[in-house]
What we know:
By secondary structure, chain A is an alpha/beta fold. Helix content of chain A is 47%, strand content 13%. Chain A has helices spanning 2-18, 35-49, 64-73, 87-93, 106-109, 114-118, 150-155, 166-175, 191-200, 217-231, 245-253, 264-274, 310-320, 323-333, 340-343, 346-349, 352-361, 373-389, 394-411, and strands at residues 21-27, 52-58, 80-85, 137-143, 145-149, 259-262, 278-281, 294-303, 336-337, 364-365. In chain A, α2 links the parallel β1 and β2. Chain B has 2 domains: 2-41, no CATH class; 62-115 and 174-298, MetI-like fold (Orthogonal Bundle). Chain B starts with a helix and ends with a helix. Chain B has a two-stranded antiparallel sheet. Chain B has helices at residues 2-41, 60-67, 69-100, 107-119, 122-132, 140-146, 162-186, 191-199, 204-215, 217-232, 236-241, 253-263, 267-298; strands at 44-45, 55-56.
Amino acid sequence: MKRCLVVLAVVSLALAAWATEITFWFAGGDPARDLPVVKKQIEEFEKATGIRVNFIVVPWAEEPHTKLQAAIAAGKAPDLAKVGLPFDHVLARFGVVEPLDQLIPAEIQATFIPAVLEDCRYKAAVPAGLKDKLISIPYFTDVRLILYRKDIFAERGVPEPLDWTWDDFVEYAQELTFDDVYGFGTSGRYNSQFIIFVWQAGGEILDENGYPLFTSPEFLEGINFYWDLYHTHRVVQPGAVDAHLWDVRKMLAEGKIAMYIDCGDSARVLYEELGDKLGAALLPKHPRTGKRTAFFGADGFVILKQSRHKEEAAKLLLWLIDKDRMVEYCKVSGFLPARADAAAEPVFIQDPIKAAFIRQLEDSRGWIKHPEASFIARILRAEVQEALAGTKTVEEALRSAQEDVVAGLKEKGYLR
Amino acid sequence: MRKGKMRKIIREALIGYSFCFPAYLIFAVFIFAPIVWSFILSFFDYNILTFSAPRFVGLHNYAKLVKDSVFLVSLRNSAFFSIFCIPITLSLAFIFALLLNDNFPGRNFFRMAIFVPSVVSMVIVSIIWMLILSAHPSGVMNRFIRVFGIPPQGWLSDRRLVLFSLSIFLIWRSFGYKMLLYLAAMQNIPAELYEVAELDGVKSWQKALYITLPMVKPTTFFLTVTSVIEFFQIFTPVYIMTRGGPGYSSYTVVNYLYQTGFQEFTMGFASAISYILFVILIILTVIQRKVFRAEQITL
């Protein structure tokens, strides 16, 4: 009997030693909030499948995307990685991610919010064979909408922002600008803060051939509207040309601005501080186009080409994007689930703030999915800031951005 | 006999080198090889993800840099930090070292208080200063200047002020460490020099100017050289506080290097930036060395 037990123990140990181990890199996460949930889900996965997971968290402050590049260059890439999108497109451009169409069943793919999943399909022609392939699977999304102080709105006799237009937005912001309080908090440092007005006016960043459209009338209209908030209507807080969004969020918490545009995790933090004084509203719509398009970001999973355990990595991926687990994660993190069925859970649609985010998601878009997205973002941001700072007119700034981006894309072989 | 002696010398040399070998190996693998390798790669078009297949472009990256207006602005900004911050930082460090070299109650507390910013995480202090320099009228700095009747300023968002604001932060952050080195240098000055000066009725400021300052000259040289390198390599506070904005008005060379290398994936171009910076720093160091030597000879 004793001998049997010893043999059993040895066999178990040997099996454990032989069990496949996969490495999973997780970019970001809050150690006090959502990471314990992920760890718990991974432990359950290990118990259920016998696959061991080497779970490595790389905080955003430690530049996980840079570390991932270095790991890939060193041939030590993880099997599965959670990254900020559209970094998946950069990885795909250099052929280092595995297409997921075959690894993720079609019925699972069908459960995702279409716009969010569509952003995970590769659009460029290079490298060959990857066009329209699924290169990542979204985990959560974080659409940006208007977060506002209900108490300041009430104090100034301004109605709650429901089904409003650009004109109402300006009128409200003017009403809400008094003493040291500013109607609208924003920052020209982030493309997401102004590109929404371009989209709402019907503008696009690139055409279908990848040619920039910064000088189109719609683009101009969107940026001019944003510029007017600073200089014509004067409803924007001082220093908005280049403020950190944390600072803007802090101003809302302190009642120094009445509203600003931000995403779900900020809403969660603000709600903890402000409680029912915090409101969330859909973006104002353009009077002509009727669009109220918002900017969304997302985090998603990629399986690296270097992985020797792609099937096991896909199993973990499927485990984490299971509807209930996604709900469990998003409830804690404050983000919105990328799956439509998860987003339809009562916990999201019955909460007025989360429900607003879910509704805004219906009219929202991500940043361009181009391998040179960072380059284009830098040029556009810098030129719009030049216009906001008054060193160039909006027309001059956009023309300059157009010329620089065209030249850069030509040099890199994306345009002829 | 001679053969035996020769063998002994060789054996001793080998033993000596074998002790040095680990250090040389680490230096060669982790410092020298990357330096040489990145120089080679500055002639290639490559990025970290296509590391194995770089494309030779000759001097293209360098030629592009010369015409790159963002790089030139970054270079100008980095030079501004050096020219503006180094004299102020070293002067403050010297003055505070002089004050804290005297015996008075609470001296250690002040020494520590001034040194602490140098050892606190750059990211943390950058965030704190970003909030201090908030452009809102209720920002800490704006509330402070309001006492003097000065209207609120966009410390980090006004392109005319942003470099100045960042400089205040950089000086605050770095002069404590330099003060400590000056203090150490001052404590090595022979006390007799001051005693003789006192007998001659020399005033305190004259002692500082004609005894202390010349005696700490090697420290000043060391601090000047390391400060030029330090201020030309500013990255974190700009990345955290302004992201190089508004526009490119606070971009530094290292911020541009990071942006092009790790965000835009043009690592060959970024390697070329790093080599231009390297050459600039070498030239400046050689000039400083010559100037200090010439001054020593004159003395």
